[in-house]
Amino acid sequence: MLITLGRHVLRYLATIFVASVAVFALMRVVPGDPAAVALGVSATPELIAAKREALGLDQPLIAQYLSWVGGMLRGDFGLSLTSGQDISPLVLDRLQVSLILVGSAMALALAAAIPVGTWVAMRHRRADDIAITALSQVGIAIPSFLAGILLVSVFAVRLGWAPANGWVPPDQGVSAFLQRLVMPVCALAAVQGAIMTRYVRSAVLEILSEDFIRTARAKGLSTWQALLRHGLRNAALPVITVTGVQLASLVIGAVVIEQVFVLPGLGSMLLDAVSTRDLTTVQTIVMVLVLLTLAVTMLVDLVALALDPRTGR
Asked: Where would you find the membrane-spanning parts of this chain (predicted)?
């Protein structure tokens, strides 16, 4: 078990290294000189040269890479090219917003998908199974940003039940925080819930056809009892794997939702940095998103390994 765990950790450390090299290299092939971008179109060659030296851009690429990685390990994400300010506290603040949004959306999606998916699997080929399956297909087809726009037009504009956009930290008022969180969370959770419902249904249907379920029923257990006692743990493995994939995609999909609801998360910060060609900020945020995605993937693998050690072989 420990050997398998160590192998997983080493694999993800190697993946992080490759990802950091890829992000660093991609930012270096983007057209334009970061020093010239920071100083503007009226900068003289002398000023640009001095700025490149101040930013460390005159050093060899390997030295620039090691400086960037070392800074991130210390929590120093560098200076913004446009404002010259330290972006570390801003990135951490924006990260909290994105994590709250993504975590709440996935929790809501799973809270709905697990019982509904299990129920429709037990009601296979009946009217409610057909109706919910068709409804989940519609949910998959609707983009999250469109769901967000529809929620705003109905519940904010027409009914006035919640603010259309904005953000209030939880320490400044729980009620205002929840009012501004509920619609973006629902917009993200609607699509993810539809996807997860179908996966839960498929996983439970597959388990119900296994021999050990038929054996349990032959011993006198009902279908529900056999599923609860012997089936759910086995059905959880593929669902957990899919949850990891969907959670990773949810981190990226939250970028658009943050723009729709004007949330100060990493996504909106990334788009602002791209529009101003702030390559230092873009590089940092992309790497943070990569680290989040890899952390989620690793966590899912470890949970699957704990549920079934055979998955690590």
From this structure: 12-30, 99-122, 134-161, 181-200, 235-262, 282-307
Domains along the chain?
A: 99-264 (1.10.3720.10)
Residue 14 tokens, joined: 């190697």
Residue 239 near residue 304 (C-beta atoms within 8 A): no
How far apart CA 8 and CA 11 sit, in angstroms, is 5
Six-digit token string for 176: 């205002």
Query: CA 206: distance to chain centroid?
Result: 28
Q: What is the pLDDT of residues 169-226, one digit of tens each?
A: 887 878 888 888 888 898 888 888 888 888 888 888 888 888 888 888 888 887 778 8
Burial (Cβ within 10 Å: 0-12, 13-18, ≥19) of residue 219 = exposed
Matching residue, tokens 């899912």: 300
Residue 282: alpha-carbon gap to chain centroid: 17
Residues 267-313: tens digit of each pLDDT: 888 888 887 777 888 888 888 888 888 888 888 777 777 766 555 44
Instruction: Give the pTM.
Output: 0.78
Q: Name every residue whose Cβ is closer than 8 Å to that of residue 201 and which is 6 or more positions away in sequence.
A: 117, 118, 120, 121, 133
